[in-house]
């Protein structure tokens, strides 16, 4: 592997994004890592460089902001970096009933989970198609395969990511550029704290996946040029069964799994 190859990873300071960055670094990809927090970003960049000996470029961008993906692309271009692999990982959710949750936060989440994915994919995909080389990994979720009461906006954004990726993949199928979807289930990351969802039954009582294992599944699928990988046997079974049930039943079952563990059952 040439040490001139670069992988750009958003949400790279924790969770699945960090584990993916480690996998690329281990294979001697140079890195462009992106997150909002400059201090965390610089600390992560230093650790990755020291451990793996690759170049790590840290760029702090708030992808909640519409202009941020374009600023990121311009910064990468200004530095003369050719991105061989793009990993869209950064994402957040908000827990609660839709009539009670904060609409401004939800609009930010839509920008982060959808807008940033679309903008970065468009910017870097154009270059990849011209070169006839490149890989994109879009981190979606099994949540995108089913409605998510108490996480309605998050699930809907991931449904978009899945549909969008599948459509663009078809458009570039005659090139050497590949787009891969990674669909994790409930994973042991900081996501649930940020979403105020730590007390949900599926988080509190469920079995949380190891982000390193999820990242490995995604990395291997990406490198093999696969279309999609659902990480974990239980998640594969859950998605398969949801496709055989009416949407109303799937929503009802998911609602029960999402409820707070200490909430008394409503009659």
TrEMBL record:
InterPro entries reported in the protein's UniProt record: NAD(P)-bd_dom_sf (IPR036291), SDR_fam (IPR002347)
GO molecular function, one term: oxidoreductase activity
CC per GO annotation: membrane
Pfam family, one: adh_short
Alphabetic keyword roster: Oxidoreductase
Source superkingdom: Bacteria
Signal sequence residues: none
Family: Belongs to the short-chain dehydrogenases/reductases (SDR) family.
Name of the protein this chain belongs to: SDR family oxidoreductase
């Amino acid at each position: 592997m040439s040490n001139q190859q670069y992988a750009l990873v958003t949400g790279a300071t924790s969770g699945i994004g960090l584990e993916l960055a480690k996998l690329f670094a281990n294979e001697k990809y140079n890195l462009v890592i992106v997150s909002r927090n400059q201090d965390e970003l610089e600390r992560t960049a230093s650790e990755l460089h020291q451990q793996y000996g690759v170049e790590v470029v840290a760029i702090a961008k708030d992808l909640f902001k519409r202009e941020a993906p374009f600023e990121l692309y311009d910064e990468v271009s200004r530095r003369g970096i050719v991105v061989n692999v793009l990993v869209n990982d950064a994402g957040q959710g908000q827990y609660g009933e839709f009539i009670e949750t904060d609409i401004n936060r939800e609009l930010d989440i839509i920008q982060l989970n959808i807008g940033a994915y679309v903008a970065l994919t468009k910017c870097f995909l154009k270059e990849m198609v011209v070169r006839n080389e490149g890989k994109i990994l879009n981190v979606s979720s099994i949540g995108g395969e089913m409605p998510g009461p108490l996480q309605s906006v998050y699930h809907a954004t991931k449904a978009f990511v899945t549909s969008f990726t599948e459509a663009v993949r078809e458009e570039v199928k005659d090139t050497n550029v590949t787009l891969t979807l990674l669909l994790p289930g409930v994973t042991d990351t900081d996501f649930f704290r940020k979403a105020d969802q730590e007390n949900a039954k599926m988080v509190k009582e469920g079995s949380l996946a190891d982000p390193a294992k999820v990242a490995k599944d995604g990395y291997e699928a990406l490198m093999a040029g696969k279309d999609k990988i659902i990480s974990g046997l239980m998640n594969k079974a859950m998605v398969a069964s949801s496709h055989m049930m009416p949407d109303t039943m799937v929503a009802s079952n998911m609602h029960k799994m999402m409820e707070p563990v200490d909430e008394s059952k409503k009659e």
